[in-house]
Amino acid sequence: MAKVVTLAHYYTTPEIQQMADKVGDSLELSLFARDAEADIIVFAGVRFMAETAKILNPNATVVLPDRGSTCSLVEQTDVTALKAWRESYPDHVHVSYINSSAEHKALSDWIVTSRNVDDIIAHLYAEGKKVIFSPDRNMGAYLNFQYGYDMPLWSAVCEVHDKFNQKALDEGFASVGDLPHYLIAHPESPLPVLQQADYVGSTSGMLNWVKAFDKAPESVIFVATEDGILYNMKLARPDLDIRQAPIYAGCQCNQCPYMKLNTIEAVKRAQQGQGVVIDYLTPEQIEAARVPIDRMLAFSERQYALNVAVKQPEAVPA
Ligand code: SF4
């Protein structure tokens, strides 16, 4: 019988996370996919994540539950234009966020996730390298601001995080009156939002920040990222008042429409091998995209002593 491993990103719904063998951020899931001893990897996330799993574990059959699970950072990046942009900086290192297609990754020297992007770019600057960054303009602008870099940036945004804005935040903060309040934010958010944040980091980083929260218990914590992670935060710290950062952009939901296509029915079908099988990448594409991913994984395993190479599926809290 085929061994099936199901992976779910923090941005999927609680029901989907409960169906998974491993829940995590992009870095954790990439490592888990690489080392999974599975015939079939069901990736309840979006297409670039399933492609990354296939690149790292080419012998496994990788299935994406729904064809529509894309990402605006991928959709806004024309790879032919990206190639010309990259070639216009021949003496720069091209660092790409993992939210990119396999073709995009193959045009990159390093892949980064929101967890390791600060450290990898600091490492490159320390070596005297010049860097260009793609595709997330908000993340790049934050890095340039925070560390005084001068990286040329590709211009795509996450349509979910890009909705966070100063005005809505000010109203949200005012709504809690005299209660102490904090803002934690994902670096895909716009710079004015990140400049106000008490913590900027990956989904796992934000989750760890909440777990370790030791300020006044009546504090309100606003979270500027996709709302799926609030499930994990409230599970970890039911004693805290944790709220979505407001957006007031027509609807009040900070949901990724592509992640939410991972319905229970779609994931069950994928576990039977039905869905989008990632079988269209050529061996050459896999090889070319794997080089910058492997650089990142080797750096991260050294830097953070990460070991999520779990062979047996992990239970997810109910
Ligand atoms: S939340 Fe944004 S960056 Fe993440 S998959 Fe959705 S559109 Fe892409």
Q: What structural keywords apply?
A:
318 residues, alpha/beta, Rossmann fold, five-stranded mixed beta sheet, four-stranded parallel beta sheet, 14 helices, 12 strands, globular, binds iron/sulfur cluster
The unreliable regions are: 307-318
Radius of gyration: 19 Å
Main sheet summary: 5 strands, mixed
Tell how many strands the DSSP assignment holds: 12
Count of DSSP H/I helices = 14
Explain what you see.
This protein starts with a strand and ends in a 14-residue tail after the last helix. Helices cover 40% and strands 15% of the residues. Helix 1 links the parallel strand 1 and strand 2 (22-24). The strands form 3 sheets. The protein has a 5-stranded mixed sheet, sandwiched between helices. The protein has a 4-stranded parallel sheet with strand order 9-8-10-11, covered by helices on one side. The chain has a 3-stranded parallel sheet with strand order 6-5-7. It has 14 helices and 12 strands. Helix 2 (26-35) packs parallel to helix 3 (47-56), helix 3 packs across helix 14 (283-304) and helix 11 (203-211) packs parallel to helix 12 (228-236). The longest helix is centred in the C-terminal third of the chain and has 22 residues, at 283-304. Residues 307-318 have low confidence and may be disordered. It is globular and about 60 Å long. The protein is α/β, with parallel strands linked by helices and 318 residues long. It has a domain at 161-244: NadA-like (Rossmann fold). The protein has helices at residues 14-19, 26-35, 47-56, 72-75, 79-87, 102-106, 117-126, 137-147, 166-175, 191-194, 203-211, 228-236, 264-271, 283-304, and strands spanning 4-9, 22-24, 40-44, 61-64, 93-97, 110-112, 131-134, 181-185, 199-200, 220-224, 241-244, 276-277. The chain binds iron/sulfur cluster. Iron/sulfur cluster binds at residues 11, 46, 71-73, 99, 158-160, 188, 226, 256, 258-259.
